[in-house]
Amino acid sequence: MLLDYFKPEDRGKAFGLSSIAIIVAPVLGPTLGGWITDNYSWRWVFFINIPVGIVTVLAIYQLLEDPPWESKSKEKLSIDWTGIGLIALGLGCLQVMLDRGEDDDWFTSNFIRTFAVLTLIGIIGAIYWLMYAKKPVVDLHCMKDKNFAVSSLLMAGMAMILYGSSVVIPQLAQQDLGYTATWSGLVLSPGAILIVLTIPLVLKLMPIVQTRWIIAFGFTCLAVSFFWSRTLTPDIDFETLVLFRSAQSIGLGFLFVPLTTIAFISIPRQLNADTAALFTMFRNVAGSIGISLSTAAITERSQAHSAYLATHTSAFDEPFQQTLREMAQAIQNFTTQVGDPTGIATGRMYQAMIEQSRFLAYVDVFTILSAVAFLLIPFCLLLSPVKSEGSAGAH
């Protein structure tokens, strides 16, 4: 709709305003959801969407109209049910496979293998159908546009990082640091404010600096901030956790508007609907994949680190035995706990091992997200060297 309703020279500002909602919403969502959960019930996180949905539908009905070239078309509406079905099959089965994979031990499960096959059938079938159907639900030929194809890849990478980290950080705060749902959500709020403040700066830079350099700078900020987040420790305080997230948010502010603007800079008007649909699909699907893989990685890496640390808790490991004896002696001398001091010390060291395993898993996830951001930087050089003013003629 933004492509249809706004002139090319105004699209940068339009994308800037829309990006505030698109990027800030998943950042502020955990904050609002945490407050609702703590003060009412987790069910209201879903119920609250009902009036919002009703108001949105009424607003769309009252305020939006088809653009002139769409309104003039009297051709009978043709729905590509085959294309829709194949896309739904492929992406739906992919999401189920990613969500259930960790619980079912991935490809050792017949359920996961079945859904993997269905995913391949759906995605490959959808690509073939959309390439050769007379009136496909989405025209894939727009992927021949280099700027659009590269921007879609970069947007997908950004979405994986954004949504994956937006789930992992509140999970860390609530499950491992003991924060309430409200406070775990509040960790993300300052980052949302930074994004809102960064976007106007980006809009000022876009007519001056080549868009691809702004995008490369954004991914560099993301990569460095997540690499810095690897210094996470179990005794981290609220302010430091907020600082980590705020640093990550700066990079996000330099990505969405430039990526969206350059993606459509050379797309013909008749392909606006197809390109917008694909661009949004890439972002949403990649975001879902980021959430699933991040949560699965936390579980898998926690188990791996726990197994490794357990190898150092044997009777033949002298550093472990020395620490155990010192802790047991301290429990016996300075506490009033009833029971075998050695047994109590062993239990405490086991809890410390589990805690360390969890935090090492978060460090691994931050490392992976940092690596993904670094790997995406070279792709920015494939974009056209333009200073985006939202104009198709800017290049």
From TrEMBL:
Its main location: membrane. It is found in: Cell membrane. InterPro entries: EmrB-like, MFS, MFS_dom, MFS_trans_sf. Residues 1-388 form the Major facilitator superfamily (MFS) profile domain. SUPFAM superfamilies: MFS general substrate transporter (SSF103473). It is a multi-pass membrane protein. Keywords: Cell membrane, Membrane, Transmembrane, Transmembrane helix, Transport. GO terms for molecular function: transmembrane transporter activity. The chain crosses the membrane at residues 12-36, 42-61, 81-98, 110-132, 153-173, 185-206, 213-229, 249-267, 359-384. Belongs to the major facilitator superfamily. EmrB family. NCBIfam families: efflux_EmrB. This is Multidrug resistance protein B.
